[in-house]
D-3-phosphoglycerate dehydrogenase
Amino acid sequence: MKKAAFFCDGGQDDVNLRRVFDASRRARLEAQVDLYPGVVTARDFEEHAPRLGDLEVIFATWGMPVLSPAQFDRLPALRAVFYAAGSVRHFAPPLLERGVLVVSAWAANAVPVAEFTLAQILLANKGYFRNVPEYHGAGHPRSAFRGRGNFGATVALLGAGQIGRALIELLRPFRLRVLVFDPFLSREDAESLGVEKVGLDDAFARGDVVSNHLANVPATVGLLHGAHFAAMPANATFINTGRGATVVEADLARVLLARPDLTALLDVTDPEPPAPDSPLWSLPNVHLSSHIAGSLGDEVARMADYVLDEFEAWEAGRPLRYAVTPERLEHMA
């Protein structure tokens, strides 16, 4: 049996580790590996290091520490890290450089984000996010805004990664026109997905709803700016469950102030939460949520299931679905 251990930064991250790898998932793991007792944290690594010379596999979730070169030297047998969460950008590069396999549960985390966004899209097209406050204010249903409905509406998705593709599948039963902006999506892939590949300007100009799922990489920082938001159709909605840094938020706030017909549903911002004096707090057409689109509650166990399935595939010599390569890392959130 391979020698394995749980790693985390410590503190709250240890709580997250126990939530994701609950008793049943730990039991499943313990049946397949020689599991190191306890959790190795960034603070007490040196205390554990003398007993980790034969460690082959690390299991982790949010809070996976970044291993230093000196710490790598203390782990000569390390072959793989199975990460039961999404983004691996902060810790994966040095692992990949040393030939260590990195597997992420980003596909599992994509499921609740896609579900959350689907709900927001359907409600946005019904006018729900304007209707509720206007109905409360006017006290009469005829005075409250109503949307165009979902039949025949146009939804523009920014990004066709794991979340974007999961959302495309969820949207399929509805009679919607789906546009996708993604420089890495080929025309052939777009056709097979049943979507229309468009440019960024076109996505904003045509979308009754524009939903952002772009990765936070240098090329996307500040990519979405004032001209895009100003070009949105009347009564359109902008949804951001991607990353706040892709949006020039000062521009977004300025356009939303000038155009009360637009609505912004922001589950992510930059910084997060917004600064206390940010206009995003006070604009009536902005709805902020506290980064709840991703896995939470019982949903986090799905991430453990994904990496445990991948571990079993790796052990059996079967192909992996969620291994992170240097090329894939360039386009991940």
